[in-house]
Amino acid sequence: MRQPEIHAGDVFQTLARAQGLALPEPQKAAGAISGTAIVTHQSPPLTAILRDMLRYSTNLTAEVVGLSATRAGGVEATDLAASGAQMADWARARLGVGDVRFADHSGLGDRSRIAAQDMVQALAQPLAQGPLRAILRPFSLRDEVGRARKQTLVKVNAKTGTLNFVSGLAGYVTMPSGADLVFAIFVADLNRRDMLTLQDRERPPGGRAWVGRARTLESRLIERWVAVYGT
To answer: What is the count of structural domains for the chain?
Structure first.
């Protein structure tokens, strides 16, 4: 939650109202409040939270973690755009990427920009390879008709990204030789995306079939790179 104090107060107010007790609107206290904790819940470690975030593409978690990271770095971002800009500055300084722009932390903003080459540059850094690679889920390569291959000599750990007529895949390949590849693939039909009406955006005609073809293309590219660089 972006404002956990207000959210907790709102929930408590709702529960109290259900019991006939009217409470004033919740307000955030200016300082720490002393008292006795009745119940304490510890969250899972950040690594576990990020692993689930990547697996289930939980956009809200991405935004909250991004905002928290910005504040932990000593910057009080006023909104997602400001925090995204701070992340872009960090990426340029720490990961050596070029002209990147982040409108938020979830990737939903259409003003975000990063080239595939810059994504590979970021993923190849030791700073990313250790903790990030460990929490990326396995990606199954597809055969010619889009079915997941049951047996393959390569291991792929990657993050998918899907919007209407946009597909992204970035991560790591462990080849039969033991060598590694870092890759990033961005596929899009922007003209078709721009033609969508507001009513079509939830389930665009042909969208599911397009994503299936994109995933098959991504698998072919990975297999091609393994064939070229895997010896």
So the answer is: 1
